[in-house]
Amino acid sequence: MHFLRNLIILFLICIAIKINLCVPTIPSSLKTLPIDGHFDFKQVHHAAKDFGNRYSFLPSAVLHPKSASDIATTVKHIWEMGPGSDLTVAARGHGHSLQGQAQAHRGVVINMESLQGPKMKVHTGNFPYVDVSGSELWINILHETLKHGLAPKSWTDYLHLTVGGTLSNAGISGQAFRHGPQISNVRKLEVVTGKGEVVNCSEKQNSDLFYSVLGGLGQFGIITRARISLEPAPKMVKWIRVLYIDFATFAKDQEMLISGESTFDYIEGFVIINRTGLLNNWRSSFNSNDSAQASHFKSDGRTLFCLELAKYFNPEEMAIVNQEIMTSLSQLNHIPSTLFKSQVPYIEFLDRVHISEIKLRSKGLWEVPHPWLNLLIPRSNIHIFAQQVFGNILTNTSNGPILIYPVNKSKWDNRTSVVLPEEDVFYLVAFLSSAAPSSTGSDGLEHILSQNKRILELCEIDGLGVKQYLPHYSTNGEWRSHFGPQWEAFVHRKSTYDPLAILAPGQRIFQKAAPLSL
């Protein structure tokens, strides 16, 4: 009887220990920090979710800051606790990370959307700019700057992301061939370092920190404010799509368009695999130059390549813009019957992905696993890559958009932390897959992850010189390989600005309190 009772007690103790291991402990010292915002130690589950919907790590607390000072106070306190503390800090913007990068297991997640501070301020003049919070969404910046007839130069395809989030990676869209990524269009930052210091930095002030943070994956500081370059904003956009059967012709036309002074302001491409009634679907938004021929065009069972172009203009420029577009299009070698045009307001064009988001949310298809794979591929190897991937790996269908377009390396600043291929022109190839929950078929998570693995193995075996964009690795060796000759400088920057590896633990580059090794 005593044995049975002791066995039951032991069983209950084990359950209690297991539960305690699963529930993050709350550092009591956080409760007494002098901040204007507040900590939440109970409602923390939302901070363990992200757009990727594949990883979930519960933090001990979520900080809802009112100012950069609140963030600095928290980080400095953890810094002063020393290497004996396991606490880490992750900044979470709009939750659009893919693989838990903005999560902090048993650490502190900073809800950047709670951050208050000086209001967004637009400065006009010969060199216009806007000062914004690191927590501001790009869509809000667009709305505010348009009131002054201005807008940022470089974008991402999806605008409902925070400034701090995109600047910690790069921020790429179809304008990058001309203006570079978003990190090439920043003049100044306010940053909270891993020591809890609030530092203003720019090209001329604390420049090493400035370039470290841009594209730095959150490893060196939390962006709390940014100064973004602006340009005169157009009112309208000519939006054009044309199709190709042959990848070599498609790539040649893209590369021709991004060289020199292109007529177009936006150049992207995407891959279409076995899509039935493709051109008929486009007719709801685009007008065909040859409706009769387009109606007979068969897209099912084929792999096609779409070149997507945009020309910005104001209504009074209509005639000359139409002539420029006709001249540029005459130089292309697309399928003649597949020329589709549309004319939309500038803001509608830039926020086009949000329309898709609304539709997917209404069908319950937004909050599903997103096993995305984003690659930067040297121009010299893009044909080998395309032949193998679209000829052997992805043949019957795709589980989401596949973007593919070239950019000019000369528009990227090599002083930033972002890692790029070595050639002057490289392609962004983005497999933006969505997995059907609980599916074990070709639209299931495991199948998509298996395809991603095959693509990465191809790049490795064939030595294609590929770099991941929005990189994710599990081992120190993989990160070293990713950074290559930049690894030593990256580690040095980490030891300078976040020596205890407190920041951005979800990237899995450095382990807190572990020696930073070269």
TrEMBL record:
Record's protein name: cytokinin dehydrogenase
Sorted UniProt keywords: FAD, Flavoprotein, Glycoprotein, Oxidoreductase, Signal
Single GO biological process annotation from the record: cytokinin metabolic process
Protein source organism: Gossypium anomalum
Assigned protein family: Belongs to the oxygen-dependent FAD-linked oxidoreductase family.
Cofactor(s), names only, from the UniProt record: FAD
Enzyme class (EC, first level): oxidoreductase
Signal peptide: 1-22
InterPro entries linked: Cytok_DH_C_sf, Cytokinin_DH_FAD/cytokin-bd, FAD-bd_PCMH, FAD-bd_PCMH-like_sf, FAD-bd_PCMH_sub1, FAD-bd_PCMH_sub2, FAD-linked_Oxase-like_C, FAD-linked_Oxidoreductases_BP
Transport listed as a keyword: no
PANTHER family, per database record: CYTOKININ DEHYDROGENASE 6, GULONOLACTONE OXIDASE
An example molecular function term from Gene Ontology annotations: FAD binding
Residue ranges constituting the FAD-binding PCMH-type domain according to the UniProt record: 55-233
EC number per UniProt: 1.5.99.12
Catalytic activity annotation: N(6)-dimethylallyladenine + A + H2O = 3-methyl-2-butenal + adenine + AH2
